[in-house]
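Study this one:
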Amino acid sequence: MESDSSPSNPISIFSSFNSQLEHSTKKNDPNSSTKKPLSLWPGMYHSPMTIALWETKSSIFERLLDPPLDAPPQTELLTKTPSQSRMTILYNFSTDYILREQYRDAWNEVRIGKLLEDLDALAGTISVKHCSDDDSTTRPLYLVTASVDKIVIKKPISVDADLKIDGAVTWVGRSSIKIQLDVTQTSPETADPTDSTALTANFIFVARDYKTGKAAPVNRIVPETEREKLLYEAAEARNNQRKRKFRDEEREIENGERNRFEALLAEGRIFCDMPALADRDSILLKDTCLENSLICQPQQRNIHGRIFGGFLMHRAFELAFSTAYAFAGMMPSFVEADHVDFLKPVDVGDFLRFKSCVLYTEAENSHRPLIHVEVVAHVTRPELRSSEVSNMLYFTFTLRPEVKVRNNGHTIRKVVPATEEEARRIIARMDADSL
């Protein structure tokens, strides 16, 4: 039987690169000599978090390395509680100096991109725990990140104080699972536990049958505590709201919104046709773009052999941050990520291109202007002369208060489209952000 992690018994994260995984495996399993050492399993080298998760839950993941495709599928769905999937992670930043260095950014805060990678890894582990039927004779489900519903940062996350992540399944559909993760950090200045939440994140995973590749039903969930019931109801309401919004958007596109498009395009046309007369406080969307590319390597794969979703989020975030920085001319500060969609899997060896731009800005509040950045990942296959969108990610930034003070009077430009396609993207993003 696996042992559940709970808030009272968190999994500690260590900086050691010389993991004791192989030794612990041999000590606990007399048949381990016939197994691949855990330190050679896929995904081991993403971060200290990944190592800790592998070591703690290796019994669950062993079946996923070589799934028994000829085994029968799970026939009886179980009913589980959120507490059965709950996991807690503790980063000992206050005492582990090497770990601190692994996560430190240039401002002595935690690197958000690296934290996003860890959050995806933990959410994936929680989804596997929830879907496990504790029956070794059935074939396990194939679980993939479908989207990130919302990641909101509530305060800066220091790298000098211990950090805790607590997460559990909050809602399930027929084949989808929603996991909420809460990142908390206390310090002498914020000793009040109610002020300790630094970040919240909501991940959505979908289940597929390993053999058929089709959507597979997942275990049910019954919330127990008042907080669990509230989270379940909120997730259900948001899911229904998104479905209604999608239907409404389809009708809007059918009926057309010419006035809205024309208003957005009017200033862009001046830039294109009469650039000398264009508003100097505005800029064309195409002039905010940045791009980078990479070849996906085996070290970046997950348990299923595909490229780890957290790695893609990490790389996309850092490009988005650079885009906001180059656009504003001042150091940005992360606010939230929303509507991160994983549309197609990315494989080892794929040529991946990330393209980013500032879609629109909100500068009405001069003390907290907002910069909305879109990052689109393309899997490019030069030999086939093809390019497909694999991921769409949206990040919102503001400006660091101390930087804003030093640059008093500096304004954030308005972004305008030059084409109708760009106008549609901006409107779609504005509407999604209004949810």
DSSP finds eleven helices and 15 strands in the chain. The mean pLDDT is 83. The longest strand covers residues 386-399. The two ends are 42 Å apart (CA to CA).
